[in-house]
């Protein structure tokens, strides 16, 4: 979630244009196209966006080359579309104009039955990078793509540079472990490191892929060819391990990672990727090594989406299986979230016609074979020719393995592995299947717990961050939040803008250690505590000290960093307190910047007797105050000092008149290894400063009369006409009398006038809030004061202050 703060919605298109220019400027980045597409998710409200480009003229297809957002299969989108067909992508490609479709239009389409969600809007736009491709976007918003969202999509379509024109396609020299294979001729360009792995010199290699394939172990050649042949490759990276023969000793294990890039404009389709040495963790016993590798991979897998490809890579490819399905057991039903290959045509038609979704979601009793395996808790292997139920007969006509997935004393699901040609199940392979099943079951259980925690943390993050920033007197503030792209993706970064009495404003930014439910929960507690302490009227150092004491009393193992800046909007001054957090960066009206040299204390929750010194800041009208968390300015490759200097430079070259655009530009190329929170405030100064006077009320019998006299003299000095003073004098009399009668200690009267609006505030040392009576009898001798104040004033209320309270009201003086 990216909080838009006070930025206006009408500027979204301009913000998108700035963000796209920033992202597109990094033309050499391999992630450039994906980052461009991600802008459609942010600014156009799309839930999925993809780029399709034409392949060679023989097949005349539009092929998917890059995507972002939720999986395309949710919306029934295909990996390729015929250029001469009636799909939205083909129509946009041929006509070179946008196509906008709503739910009613999509319901009549050929892919309607493939869609898990029907109430969506789809857009297809031609891209303008010369490839003749098109952009496809989907929105789940009930209103679809409005005028502003359409403008943003057209900007994205104009900024896309298709990956098919990447460095390898442009003929740049290959180095190291990279390769590029032309699919039509079989000519392959390889780096020197690959030749070393195959035991060849540059002079010995003739550039033919057959030369390299001839050096592989014959048993591994079929699985290697399944990746090398274009007809078997789908968009996205594929991984395969294979062996090459050595002059002496056992074969060497290599790992190939490849990606198919479609051709076009006279260029053939290419398979590009890397080949690396994979022999170091492999033992002499192949199946034991496979289990070790699967265990290592699943140990680091987080969500369910990470477990699935690990299982496919560890089982289907080494076993040379034709298909693999992962079925989870949920409330007596088998839900199949993972199928490889993913194409519907590779699986039984019954799976698509008799159950409610494209893939099975059926009662366990509907498939007796998996039901028996789950009941008995051991792997079931069915050789070729075995009579199976119709739902499974086409999964493994040459052999079928059904592996129950145990986890924590129960069955998490089943894994189905099928072969088209007769397969011989050896004893070692049966052991491999049984060992792998236990690892997969445990990994699935951990992954579901991970996903559940992720959802909870995401919900906490959305609920605990401010929904919008307040309007400030004499200033504009915007904020942004970017989650990390790894781990739980959300954590303890937060920001806040707290309006205070007398045109004071507190800017807060902080970071709780870690990415977890505990971190998100603690973030909400710290944000609430700081807001409460600030509202009580404490100075900044006391506010931060109280928060430190609270965190220590919570007895958590986590700590937090924080920067707290309290700004006086009338005087243009500020006090800054830091608790282990990066300092503010100031941009002055002349474009110069300064990393504020502020004293800092330790992080919150570390030391009981910590000191948090205050540092003064001077703000000229036009000064921008930037507060950020370390995720923006510190990475493994960049220390925090360098990151702060880069932030200062980016602020210096920005245009502060559009603060929202500045925030978007600062985050456009932000590292995503950690959460990032950013809070910007431009101090403009108050056009009209209020008039203020205060007086300490004497505890004498005629105190109310003295307070009225002070009020009259003050209002006359401010130019208020005598004939409009009566309501103010009555309110002052009632509030002062209540404070003297019902409290002890010091009582103070403060008057503030701005734009003919008078604020009257009476402060006393009692924390008890005055209570408005619900009813008054004729014989009652008190209780009418608050009713009179409520009747005369436009608004009134109470706020806590240090050691007491303040009762205030506001009146409009027409004079």
UniProtKB/TrEMBL annotation:
The protein, known as: SpoIIE family protein phosphatase
The keyword Hydrolase appears for this protein: yes
Domain of life: Bacteria
Signal peptide: none
Keywords: Hydrolase
Positions of the PAC domain: 238-290
InterPro entries with a match to the protein in the record: Bact_Sigma-Reg, GAF, GAF-like_dom_sf, HATPase_C_sf, HATPase_dom, PAC, PAS, PAS-assoc_C
CDD domains registered for this protein in UniProt: HATPase_RsbW-like (cd16936), PAS (cd00130)
PANTHER family hit by this protein: STAGE II SPORULATION PROTEIN E, STAGE II SPORULATION PROTEIN E-RELATED
